[in-house]
Amino acid sequence: MPLTPAQTDRAIGALLGSAAGDALGAGYEFGPPLPDDQPVHMAGGGSFDWEPGEWTDDTSMAVPIAQVLADGGSLDDEACLDRIVAAWSQWALTATDIGVQTSTLLDALPEPTAAAARRQAAEHYAANPRHAGGNGTLMRTGPVALGYLGDGREDALAAAARAVSDLTHGDPDAGDACVLWSLAVRHAVREGVVDLTAQLAWLPADRRARWAAVIAEAEESQPADFAKNGWVVQALQGAWSALHHGADLVDVLERAVRGGRDTDTVAAIAGALAGAAHGAAAVPAEWRQKLHGWPGLDADGLADLAVRAVGGGPGAA
Ligand SMILES: [Mg+2]
Asked: Which UniProt keyword terms apply here (predicted)?
């Protein structure tokens, strides 16, 4: 669908906002919650000694999804999902911060195909039903919506978000969270407003009440209240709490980081939706100048990917 300049800016914002949250939180990962008045800086450091502005696995795993869409691919095409899994496998060879669930899965893949990954993720969930709901798919779901911005594409987006989640995580909680968040990103890019509750309609009917309660609890709480934010449900709650209480994109991302623990991921999740609502223009220039990471991209590279992913073509921004 032809986008207005404001919608294009918000599509770019979905990628840049997420990458900014990721890089902002990178230096604080595994740390405790921070006081409300403590300044938060995009200074790198942390357990993996990140460079200032360097993004982590959250953005690195999102990039291949955006690349497939930018090349005109579709996420219901098995060959495109194969390409994503192959790119993740390549990235994992040199990645330092890869999540436990994703690392275990990619290391054990007999071949880097979507079918092998999906099968292995399902088997892992069957064997570990209480410990297979990591946040590693919600963190990378931001770009999925960019391929489904047209009218009446909600069902197709819900299926795509779940399909991409299922590649590494068999727990339906992970898929549900990606469906909710991706639909909210789509709505935000189209309309310029955030509405998570309205997206419950695209979940299986028997799970909507549970997720409505999850959302309501987040709105009554602060990000730091969700200490188990390595779990996809509490990661979504931490991100949603930051969005719900935050005044603008910077405030949302700082709140997400001050929540502590899996700071980069909660801020990356929050940033995808905040960026989709507020647009790339809301990402401070100081952050844009610093942003960079695998596979050798910077903020301009991410923006170009986003424009191509929504069908804007080279130079449309
Ligand atoms: Mg990370």
From this structure: Hydrolase
